[in-house]
Amino acid sequence: MKKEYKVEVIKEDALGTIFLGSSNLPVEKMEEVMNKYGNDGWDVTFQVIEKRRLLLFWTREAAVITFSRIKT
Predict the structure, then answer these.
(1) How many domains does the chain have?
(2) Which residues form the domain of 41?
(3) Distance (Å, rounded) from C-alpha 2 to C-alpha 9?
């Protein structure tokens, strides 16, 4: 039984981070991506929130979601 994996990275909005100092992760986009892969038979295997550098002075959060399914 072999598995295959996909990784999706969903980031905060850059403009909100620059002008407001921070913004929220786009939950609607996360739901859309998870539902799309779920309908295709993928399961969420791992998810992590990390901080990524934006330009020189700002950081923004990104959700890294790993999906897996049995290879057919």
Answers:
(1) 1
(2) 3-70
(3) 24
Is the pTM higher than 0.90? The answer reads: no
Instruction: Report the SS3 class of residue 25.
Output: coil
Long-range Cβ contact pairs of 35-39 (< 8 A, separation 24 or more)? 37/6, 37/8, 37/67
How are strands ordered across the β-sheet holding 43-54? Answer: 3-11, 58-70, 43-54
Strand stretches in 1-72, DSSP E: 3-11, 43-54, 58-70
Write out pLDDT tens, residues 8-36: 998 876 555 445 555 566 688 888 999 99
What six digits make up the tokens of 59? Answer: 């950081």
Calculate Rg over the CA atoms of the chain: 15
